[in-house]
Each structure stands twice: as structure tokens, then as C-alpha cells.
């Protein structure tokens, strides 16, 4: 592929990290771009490799796998490899092609060499890379509850209508409590996340009235005791709970940090390891637990 062809030049002009470059500036970068073909199931790089190359997807599809099971898909026009390029550190995850792909590559040493790419041009690229990296800091924990509800459920956010009240049987139900604890334990065993109780999966906000707690203190104490008894006292350090009010309805927001040790949830005298699989919570198979713990916690 000849990167100087008009259609490829126009493609690069629309890539996020080059969007503020003038034509002449992009041309100065173009001299140091090179192509790399990736076959299906081939690794681009593995976690802990030390490499400072920036990648742009020209076509195809690739999957990023992070410790803890988190995944992300990259497609045409997406950029990856920016973290290792900026901090000169190891790769934090592995990327593999899920279909034949073509990557446009830029070596970090070329970008930082003023004798190759003018400093003013490199600075514009680094500013866009910095924006990419800082956007990762806007996690669920740092986002308002109102905004999380607007965005809906995802890998890091889950809604539950109630903490203990079964809306179908009209009774308190231990299985409803178990559903909330599953999400909390799964967030601990994965990459963290936020559970919002008092919101259904259609973003309606019934609030906490059905749970019939005397006051907010009793509600928070009840949740803390559940976590202590069913997951473990040591894991309460990774949970922050607060009662908020939106449109006149009370909600319970539970922010969960990743745990450095496995969080097993006790249910019917069994200890179960739950993890996040995309926007869902899943129970690990016995045959999968050892490998997962080795990967996630070691």
C-alpha cells in the first residue's frame, strides 16, 4: 500500500491524532509511517513487551485483552499503543487480530526525533495522545450518577431495581440480595465498577422505597454486613457506598475497586468466583478458576 496516495492521505487526515496537523505537517510524519500486515489470530504485541510503536488500524479488527479479563475491540481508524509510547514502559495488555488486518505504524523514537519530525508537529500529536490517555481517567467512579444512568449499563456499570425486595413476589428475598452481591464481587475480581440500586435496566428510577429501610444509615449498615458475611471483611475496603437523590428518589450507589486478592462469594455453603464478562456477571467454571487467578492476581 502506497501511503502517499490521495485516499490514504485523506484517511490519515481523519485519524484523531493527526486531525490538527496542516497538510505539510502530516507530510512530514508520513515519511516515517510504515505498514504491517497481521494475519487472523496473530499477536501484534503481548503484555509486558517493551516497545514504543504507535498503531493505526487501516482495516480489519483487533482485540485488546487486559489483565482481569477486560477487552476492547479496535477497528478502522482506531489508534492504540499510546500508553507505552508516552511512558516508555511495558505494554499493559495483549492485542491480537480477530480477522486479517493492516496497521499503519509510527515508531516513537521517530516521533521524538526533532531531526526527523519538527518539534511543533510532534507536540500536536502528543497533545492528542495525552487527551486519549487522560480520557481513561474518566471512569465510572469519577462520573456523576445521573450521567451513569443516562449512559446505561456496560462493562463497568450495572443497575438493580432493589437491594432485598422481590418486585414479583412482593416479599424480601435473599436471592435479590445475592444478585447485588454477585455484581459487587465480580467488579472486585475484574477491573472494578459501579452498582446503582434503585434503577431498573430500562433506566427507570423506582428508588429505594420498596426496600423499606428505616433510614439511610440502616441501609448502608445492611449492605456492609452482607459484604462482610458473604464476601469477607477484608474486602469492605474496596467498596464505597453512598445514598443519593435523583428526581426525588433515593438511590444507592456502590463504587467498587479491583481487589488484589480473589473475592469469593458464599452462597448455599459454596464459595463462588464471579467475574465481569462484558456487561454481564458470570460464574467461573471450576476448570477456569486456577488460570484466571494466575492471570488476574499474579
List keywords for this structure.
single chain, 298 residues, alpha+beta, Jelly Rolls, Methyltransferase, Cobalt-precorrin-4 Transmethylase, Domain 2, 2 domains, 6-stranded antiparallel β-sheet, 4-stranded mixed β-sheet, 9 helices, 15 strands
Descriptive account of the structure:
It is built from nine helices and 15 strands. The chain is an alpha+beta fold and 298 residues long. It folds into two domains: 130 residues, Sandwich (Jelly Rolls), CATH 2.60.120; 158 residues, Schlafen, AAA domain (Methyltransferase, Cobalt-precorrin-4 Transmethylase, Domain 2). The strands form four sheets. Strands 1, 2, 3, 4, 5 and 6 form a six-stranded antiparallel beta sheet that branches. The protein has a four-stranded mixed beta sheet with strand order 7-10-12-11, sandwiched between helices. A hairpin with a 2-residue loop joins strand 14 and strand 15. The two termini are 42 Å apart.
Question: In terms of topology, how is this protein built?
Answer:
Blueprint: H1 6-13, H2 23-30, E1 33-38, E2 43-45, E3 53-66, E4 71-74, E5 79-80, H3 82-87, E6 93-107, H4 108-111, H5 119-135, H6 145-151, E7 157-160, E8 165-166, E9 171-172, H7 174-189, E10 193-197, H8 216-230, E11 239-246, E12 249-256, E13 264-267, E14 270-277, E15 280-283, H9 286-297
Amino acid at each position: 500500500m502506497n501511503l502517499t496516495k490521495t485516499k490514504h492521505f485523506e484517511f490519515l487526515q481523519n485519524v484523531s491524532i493527526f486531525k490538527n496537523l496542516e497538510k505539510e505537517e502530516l507530510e512530514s510524519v508520513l515519511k516515517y509511517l510504515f505498514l504491517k500486515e497481521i494475519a487472523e489470530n496473530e499477536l501484534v504485541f503481548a503484555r509486558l513487551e517493551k516497545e514504543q510503536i504507535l498503531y493505526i488500524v487501516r482495516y480489519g479488527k483487533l482485540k485488546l485483552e487486559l489483565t482481569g479479563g477486560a477487552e476492547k475491540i479496535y477497528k478502522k481508524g482506531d489508534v492504540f499503543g499510546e500508553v507505552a509510547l508516552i511512558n516508555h514502559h511495558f505494554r499493559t495488555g495483549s492485542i491480537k487480530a480477530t480477522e486479517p488486518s493492516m496497521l499503519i505504524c509510527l515508531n516513537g523514537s521517530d516521533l521524538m526525533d526533532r531531526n526527523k519530525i519538527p518539534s511543533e508537529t510532534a507536540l500536536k500529536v502528543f497533545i492528542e495522545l495525552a487527551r486519549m490517555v487522560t480520557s481513561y481517567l474518566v471512569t465510572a467512579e469519577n462520573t456523576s450518577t445521573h450521567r451513569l444512568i443516562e449512559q446505561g449499563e456496560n462493562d463497568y456499570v450495572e443497575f438493580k431495581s432493589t437491594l432485598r425486595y422481590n418486585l414479583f413476589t412482593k416479599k424480601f428475598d435473599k436471592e435479590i440480595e445475592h444478585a447485588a452481591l454477585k455484581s459487587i464481587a465480580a467488579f472486585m475480581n475484574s477491573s472494578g465498577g459501579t452498582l446503582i440500586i434503585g434503577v431498573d435496566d430500562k433506566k427507570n428510577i423506582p428508588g429505594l422505597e420498596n426496600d423499606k429501610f428505616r433510614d439511610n444509615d440502616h441501609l448502608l449498615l445492611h449492605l456492609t454486613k452482607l459484604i462482610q458475611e458473604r464476601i469477607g471483611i477484608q474486602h469492605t475496603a474496596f467498596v464505597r457506598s453512598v445514598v443519593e437523590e435523583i428526581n426525588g428518589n433515593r438511590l444507592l450507589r456502590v463504587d467498587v475497586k479491583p481487589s488484589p486478592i480473589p473475592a469469593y462469594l458464599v452462597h448455599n455453603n459454596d464459595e463462588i468466583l464471579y467475574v465481569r464478562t462484558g456487561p454481564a456477571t458470570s460464574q467461573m467454571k471450576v476448570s477456569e478458576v486456577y488460570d484466571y487467578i494466575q492471570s488476574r492476581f499474579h
